[in-house]
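Continuing the series of single-chain predictions for the mutant panel. This is the parent chain; the variants come on the following pages.
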Amino acid sequence: MTRDFHAHVLLCEHDISAVPRDYVVDVAWTKRVLERWTVDSVFRAEFASGATAALQAMGAPLEPGQIRPFTEGFDLEAELPLSARRYESFMREKRELRRRFSACGEAADPGMAAWRRRQLYRCTGEPGQGREDATAHAPVAFELSAAGCAQGGRAETTSGHGRPYTTDDAALWRDTLTTMRRLLGDVLDEGLLCWATDPLDTPHYESYLADFHEVVGSCPRTTTALGHKDVGRTRQLLELTRSLGPGADRLSIGSVDSLNRLHAAFTAEELLRVECVPRNPEAAESIRSPHTDRARQFPREFAREFARTREAEPSAPDVAPVPAGVSGFLIGMTDRTVQLVTPCVPSDRWPLGHWVLGRGRFSDAAGLSEVIEGMIARNMRAGVGLADPVRLRRDARLALSDGELRISAAGRHVAVCDQPDLDDLAACLREESPLMAIAFATRRNYRSGVAPEHTFAWLDHLFEHGLLDEEPEPEPLKAVAAGAVQGIPRRCEDGQLPCGQGGSAGGSI
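Parent structure:
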């Protein structure tokens, strides 16, 4: 018989003093043991050979059977221990918090809101199913200092250290936040402080954080790889963020020694709402699969759903992990720079794991507003334009069978069965030199009798779901394309081709 179980909220509540003590202890210690198990290969070996002794050695008030559902095989029909069910509920809450952070709500500007949705859809497939929940899509990240950073994927190293928080800096910071609140709306709540640098490399990070909370009304979560260096400052920082609202800060664990120092300085309950993220080589083998973490967090759900989920996805080779990303603006407060970026799979062309769609500089809040509004206007189009090349994402696949054309990229699918001449539609999409949208629509009208407005509506559907390629072109190609399409008008609001555009316009028909 299943015992009654009531799940308590631990992450999204400011005060958890009303949560039963045994509930908090179960979750906090299960979390601590799994942190140790994930990071420390020696502990994994000790747990495998003598689990009870290994748990006693670290002072854990748990039995091996309370941990094994998350580290080993399990019986779907058997009832999980109460502590495991409590931890499973805690991880579900954390997953929902991560998903909310990834979605970040809607930007105030409709064009930016639609652009961010497309990037989320694209990253559902490009990074691989299961990774998108771990890839944050913050709308903005503020770089507060110019120190180097050792965190994953963003190892841009620049000279200098965090600058003092002067009166002028404070005034510009608060003006910047006010401007970004006006431009982005409530989605600014999910902004990040520090990107290619570590927060604790900024001497007055806490002042920036407090001002953010005062101006914006929320407290951005902190991720640091230096938490073990000065545990006194780390403790004060965690106390500050906890006082400013609920949530989960993150400590990146670069070595077993780092974890040892943090576990020695903080109790399991003090780190309950702090995520320890393994980055050390010893942990690599245990967390290599993007599904391993989920399997430990949700053993029953994972076992029942994993096979079905994988069957629904097109098979594809595994891809490199995507670093936590910004789909929006990187703003450097030290060098007064702005970049428009979005995550991608790291490559020779994009080694830092994000596309760069635009760059600019500013000297004050008014200049920042002008730069960002220009980037939104140039890069965040509402739909497919007449001169836009129609090219599927590089990982997309076409399959034509039984009167249906299926377009798939891992995690995203569109099936077409209500258009005539699907062979020609597939041929249009497979063109080695992509057709401009106007040529695509004209060809479909000429060969298959499909009204241009219907073709544009369908292309917009692919576009909105992140299946069309939006990767920035190299600068020389941008200049060539701009010259080649000069004089081609925008399409009408109803999707019709403008007068006089019934013939060929770039590409073959």
